[in-house]
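Two entries, shown back to back:
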Amino acid sequence: MPGLRGARGRAGRHLGRADHGRAPPPAVPPGLGPAGLVTCSLLKRVVAPRPETGARLGPADFLQRVLAPHLETGARLGPADFLQRVLVPRPETGARLAPVLTTRSSFTRVVVPGVGVLVSANVLNNRVARRLAPVTSAVAAGTLVALARRAGLTWQEMGFTDAARGAKIGGALAAAVAAVYTAGVLTPRTRPLFLDERALRLSRARLLEEVLVQVPLGTVLLEEVAFRGVLPAALRRSHGPVASVAGASALFGLWHVLPSLDMASANPSLGRLASGEGRSGRPGAGAVRLVAGSVAATGLAGVAFHELRRRGGLLAPSLLHLATNTLGYVAGRAARRLGRARRPGGQPVETTWKPSA
C-alpha cells in the first residue's frame, strides 16, 4: 500500500530529525533484571560527577555513609538516610560530605591519644627540657590538630574562627589586665605581691626570652589549642556540650599539678607551707592543699576561658592568657624599679605571686 509506506517514511524522517543532536541512551549490559538495572543506575549516580559540584564521591566517603551505624541508634542506614547522606551534597558548601565521625571514634581517636601527648609534653616541659618547651609545645599542638583533622573535626569546631571578634574581646581583656597590674604596682600595699625573685633574677635576655618565646609558644599555644580547641571539640561530639566544658577544664586543672609543685619548692612562704608547717601539722599536707587549690583554680579558669572561646574563637582566651603571663614579668620589673618593699629588719618581703604557668 503506497499510502501507508509513505506515511511510515514521513514518520521515520520526523523522528530522525527529533532525535538529531541527542546523546545515545547509555548502554546497559545485557541480561540484567530489574534489580541489576537499579544497581547500575545507583552506582552510576554515586560514581559519576555530581551535577552540583562536579566532584566525585571517593570510596572512603561512600563506604563510610553506607556502612557506618547511625550516631543515635547504632542501626544501619536506611534507604532514605542513604540517599540523604550519600547522594545529596552538603547544603552549606556544595562539597561532598565529610566522613561521619561516630561517638566512639571521636573519643578513642582524639581524646585518648591526645591526653597521652599532653602527659608527655607536660613531663618534658616541667622536668626534662624546660628551655625546649616552645619546641615541645609546638610539636604537641601540631600533633593534636592532626589527630583532630584526621578524625573529621572541622576548623570551626576547634575554634579557629571569628578572628576579628576574638581580637576585640581578647584585646579588651588584655588591656584590663594591664590596668589591674599597673594599679597593683603603683599601690605600695600591693606592690610586694609582684616582687617574685624567680622572675626578678632573670637577666634581660632571659626576660625577653620568657616574654617573647617561652610564654607565647611554650605555654599559651599548646594550652589553648589543647584545652580550648581540640579536646572540647572531640568531647562535644562524643558526650555533649556540658561534658566537653567540664572534661576539658578538669584536664586543664590537672595539667598544672607539676607547675604547682615547682611553685611550692621555689617560693619561700609556699615552701614552708608545703613542708608541713600548715594548720594540720602533718608533713606534706601543705603541698597537697597547694596542688589541690591550684588544680581547682585553674579548672575554674578553664571554664571562663572556654566561654571566651565560645564568644570569640581561640584568639580571645589566647590574648587574655598571653597578657596575664607576660605582663606579670613586666610588672615585677616595674615594681622593683619603684622600690622593693622591705621588712623592718631590712629583709626583702617574701611573696607568693608568680606568673601562672
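entry 2 starts here
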Amino acid sequence: MTSSTELYVNLQKIYLAKAEADFLVLQQRVKSILKRIGRDPDSISKAMIKSFCKNARKLKVCRYRLIEDEFSNPAVSELQKYLSDEEYSVAMGFYILLRAVDRFAANYNSFPGQFEGELDEDISRLKTAAVGLLNDLGCNGSTVTEDLINEMCRFGASELHAVAAFIGGIASQEVIKLITKQFVPMVGTFIFNGIDQKSQLLTLPAFHRIRWGSR
C-alpha cells in the first residue's frame, strides 16, 4: 500500500474535521446538562471536553459494591451459583472458610490449627462456623468440603513467603490502579489457591459506579 503526501494530508484533514464535529456535539450536550442541573454551562473547559473525546475509547465503567454491603446484604443467588459450579466451587469454598476463620478467631482468640494438639477440635469448630456462616448468608443446605476445612486447619494460619509476596504484589498493583485511575481494577473478590496455583475472581452484583481510565 502506498500513498502520496497530498492524500495523507487530505486523510488527516478528514479525521481532524470529524474529531472537531464530535467535540462540538459533545460540548453542546455537556452545556445542556450543566444548565439543567443549575451549574455554569462553561464550568467544564473546552480542553477537558477535548481530552475526554480523545480518550473516550480508553474509558471503562466499573461497578463495585461496598464490603459492608457484601457482609450485610449478601447476594444469595450468586453465592449459591458459585458453590454449585464445579469451576468455582473450590474458590468459593475458600471464600466461605476465610470468613468462617474470622468468626473462629473472634470466638476462640486463635486461628484454627494454630496450636498443636487441637487440630481435631479446631476442624469441628471451623466446620460449625462455616455451616453457621452459610446459613446466615441464606445458603441453607450448602456445605464446604471436608478436604478444604481440613486444609484450612492444617496450615494453621501460616504465611508462606512466596504466597505472601504474590498476594502483596497483586494488592499493591490494585492500589496503584485506584490512585492513578489508570488501567482497569479487578471487579470482584480475588481468591488465590496456592495448592492448585489458580487465581479466580468471584464477582458479586455491584451497586456503585466509578469511571476509570484504562490503557
